[in-house]
Amino acid sequence: MNLVLCFALSLNIYMFVQWSASLRGRP
Q1: Where exactly are the structural domains of the chain?
Q2: Among 1, 7, 2, which residue's Cα sits nearest to residue 15?
Q3: How far apart are CA 2 and CA 8, in angstroms?
Q4: Residue 24: burial class (beta carbons within 10 Å; 0-12, 13-18, 19+)
Q5: How far is CA 15 from the centre of its chain?
Q6: Which residues, other chains included, contact 27 with Cβ-Cβ below 8 Å and sequence gap of 6+?
Q7: What is the Cα–Cα distance from 24 to 26, expressed in whole angstroms?
Q8: How far is it, in rounded angstroms, from Cα 10 to Cα 16?
Q9: Per-residue pLDDT at 8
Q10: Residues 1-27: pLDDT tens digits?
Q11: Angle at Cα 8 formed by Cα 19 and Cα 20, nearest 5°?
Q12: What is the pLDDT of residue 5?
């Protein structure tokens, strides 16, 4: 798997988790 693609995918998942957590009112 391409390293850049893997990094972008994990970063995308991380951002999504942070965004959903902020929607739930968590720090």
Answers
A1: 1-27
A2: 7
A3: 10
A4: exposed
A5: 3
A6: 21
A7: 6
A8: 10
A9: 98
A10: 699 999 999 999 999 999 999 998 855
A11: 10
A12: 97
